[in-house]
Specification:
Strand order of the largest sheet: 1-2-4-5-6-7-8-9
Bound molecules: flavin mononucleotide
Order of helices and strands: EHEEHEHEHHEHEHEHEHHHHHH
Structural class: alpha/beta
Radius of gyration: 19 Å
Number of helices: 14
Largest sheet: 8 strands, parallel, barrel
Length: 323
């Protein structure tokens, strides 16, 4: 999936946001090389194949979105054997790449021995990665997504080394600690230090909001692989600008217009749910509120009270003509 020397741009997993319709829509923009599913939690039972089939409908289609974007399955949990057995079931369902979440800061997840809580136990990171690596076929990439540490940004050195020792194919590093939650700053230079210490691809992630941020992250980390989360929704032109900067193939007509992007999300929601539901409306509004909070989407205040998708698009059409 990922070549060490070839630049790549990934769409970040975002629980409650990057579901199958959103992944399909983002695939349609041509801006990303692959995406990662929202985390799928392995708690007291091994997850059966049908959970993966349900959560990741792309698995029935060679793990590609209907728009051709490769999808990597992300699992989360603290028990090596259950994680390994669940990963095998994901493969049986059609997964072609597995990512392991060591970054989720949600208190319920962390209290139950998952996500970022493992950052306090580096050897357990190694054991989990190793168990999954040993269980699945050699050609299946097994990657790990880490924050820098629980409290200290210096913990990334050992945490990343342990994930590498466990046999991770690549690491994605969100350059802040669990205690920081989503608060600035991000420490891209730490990613660069880890990249020099380890001999595997490192994907840099966190707070790339503008092209200048991207260039700074590139300088600080020395990476050629990047992952973009919230800015993919807040600033849909940005991934295309980043691709150009990376020398990757560029969509000749990058979609920077909001309306067709929102329409594409509705079409993909309809495809997966067979009709337009309140969930579609909720997801559209969620996207618009992120684009309002972090980007330059100016119409949110006029649209947030719309009670149906039809009303939303009617208003959007009217407003669109004015701006
Ligand atoms: C709402 C939300 C949900 C997220 N869910 C996940 C998740 O399921 N798995 C994961 O590894 N990271 C998750 N993340 C973290 C993102 O993948 C990413 O590391 C983080 O947002 C920083 O990147 P960004 O600044 O480009 O958004 C989530 C982030 C947000 C904002």
């Amino acid at each position: 999936v990922l070549r060490p020397e070839t630049p790549a741009l990934a769409l970040a997993p975002m629980d409650g946001i990057t579901d199958a319709p959103m992944r399909a829509m983002q695939g349609g923009t041509g801006a990303f090389d692959y995406c990662v599913t929202e985390f799928i939690r392995v708690s007291i039972d091994v997850l059966p194949r049908k959970v993966f089939t349900r959560e990741v409908p792309e698995l029935a289609h060679r793990a590609l979105t209907p728009t051709g974007l490769p999808v990597q399955v992300q699992i989360l949990g603290g028990d090596p054997d259950r994680m390994a057995a669940s990963a095998l079931n994901a493969i049986a369902a059609g997964a072609t790449a597995i990512d392991i979440n060591f970054g989720c800061p949600a208190p319920t997840v962390n209290r139950n021995d998952g996500g970022a809580s493992l950052l306090r136990h580096p050897t357990r990171i190694r054991d989990i990665v190793r168990a999954v690596r040993d269980a699945v076929p050699a050609e299946i990439p097994v990657s790990a997504k880490l924050r820098l540490g629980w409290e200290s940004i210096d913990d990334i050195h050992l945490n990343a080394a342990m994930a590498a020792e466990g046999g991770a194919t690549w690491l994605t590093i969100h350059a802040r600690t669990r205690m920081q939650s989503y608060k600035p700053p991000v420490f891209w230079k730490k990613i660069g230090m880890v990249r020099q210490e380890l001999d595997l691809p490192i994907i840099a992630n966190g707070d790339i909001w503008t092209l200048d941020d991207f260039k700074q992250c590139q300088d600080d980390s020395g990476c050629v692989h990047f992952m973009l989360g919230r800015a993919a929704l807040a600033n849909p032109a940005l991934p295309h600008l980043i691709r150009r900067e990376l020398g990757l193939d560029v969509n000749p007509k990058p979609e920077t217009d909001w309306l067709p992007l929102f329409q594409a999300l509705v079409q993909h929601s309809e495809f997966y749910q067979h009709k337009i539901t309140m969930r579609t409306l909720f997801r559209l509004k969620q996207w618009m509120s992120i684009a309002h909070a972090f980007g330059d989407f100016l119409l949110w205040n006029e649209l947030k009270r719309c009670e149906s998708t039809e009303a939303l698009f009617a208003n959007l059409g009217d407003l669109h003509e004015k701006v």
